[in-house]
Amino acid sequence: MSNAVKNYNWVARAIHWISALAIIGMFSVGLWMVDLSYYSQWYRTAPHWHKSVGILLALLTVLRLVWKVVTVSPVIEGSAIVKVAAKVGHFVMYLLLFVLFTSGYLISTADGRSIDVFNWFAVPGLGALFENQADLAGEIHFYVAWALIVLAVIHVLAALKHHFIDKDNTLRKMIGASK
What CA–CA distance (Å, rounded) separates 139 from 168? Predict the structure, then answer.
């Protein structure tokens, strides 16, 4: 049975590339902002933007998963092991993202305050649900962010391998230009 869909649709592609840029940006800003001093002009602004983008990325990721369920995607190219690796890799990336979203929420709301998203809306805080919540969630957030970036690099390398070595359409499908 052949799959008539050659490329990911424009919504899936847009969400993919927006998410990729947001994740790289969030990781970079996260590393930078933990070293800000109280007297830095960015001390309050950077965390506000980080939290706001994080909430929006969480919503976009939920939309992405819903979109993935309700639309048809092109088939994964490669051997059986490559197909399994791609599915496992994507699942783990989504899992890491949701652990990041949850740990970020737990860090930000441990004091009971809500998360203000660009002054558009607020996500209510539940307060401390367990002892040392902000510290434990912060540790998880840090290591899971690194794991996600490492997995994203592997994802990029796999796409480049498909493109330059296997010479298949894997990368072209995500830019809308498969043969």
Answer: 40
* Confidence (pTM): 0.94
Between the alpha carbon of residue 106 and those of residues 73, 82, 134, 163, the distances in Å are 34, 36, 6, 40
b/e for 51-65, b at 16 or more Cβ within 10 A? bbbbbebbebbeebe
> Is CATH 1.20.950 the classification given to domain 10-175?
yes
Please tell me the predicted confidence (pLDDT) of residue 21. 98
3-class DSSP assignment, residue 161: helix
Residue 1 has pLDDT above 50, yes or no: no
Phi/psi at 12 (5° precision): -60, -40
Q: Which are the contacts of 7, defined by CB distance < 8 A and separation ≥ 6?
A: 13, 74, 172, 173, 174, 176, 177, 178
Instruction: Say whether 80 sits in a helix, a strand or coil.
Output: helix
**CB atoms inside a 10 Å sphere around CB 8:** 21
Q: Which amino acid is at 21?
A: L
